[in-house]
Task: structure prediction
Amino acid sequence: MAVRTSLPVASGGEEDAPLSVKGSPDIPMLLLTVILVLFGCVMVYSASAVYAEQYHHDSTYFIVRHLIFALIGAAAMFLIIRFCTPVFWQDFAVILFAISVLLLLAVLVVGDDLGSGAKRWLNFGFITLQPSEVAKLALVMILAKYMTKYRDKVRSEYRFGGSFLYGVVYPGMIIAAVAGLIALEHHISGLMIVGM
Result:
């Protein structure tokens, strides 16, 4: 959740903190997350109950699986908040972004269409993975790392060599690269989300 990474100093400027403080939950963000998860549970059940009853003879088949994964996700979230530092996330962002680009390239070569006609999935036998979903998270993380690293240049008063170049052009190139790979999968909804 939210972790403050800069501290005010007497001169009125900001001094970088060592980015080693472990976070604590941002309560409004945590509540919003819980509300969205609960809303998602309602949507999953309402959309899948009839299908689950017809094909699995249990109207709660999908919602139970959804709740299990939600609980696993909640446990992982609290462990991450407790033990992972901002420095870890900055390093992890680069690794995850590189992995997501490799997965997006792999799906173009060995992707599975799962009967939809568009290669969007990687089939590992025991699990299928949609690389564009990984790329969405990786893109947010790498842009956050980028904006943190170049925040002074993004705020620069020299518009075209500073704020525009570092705040619009370079991030736009990163987004365009990911969006281009997703577009090659013919994944329009994923492309729209990345583009926004």
Remarks:
- The chain has seven helices and four strands.
- Helices lie at 27-56, 61-83, 86-110, 131-149, 151-154, 163-184, 188-195.
- Residues 1-15 have pLDDT under 50 and may be disordered.
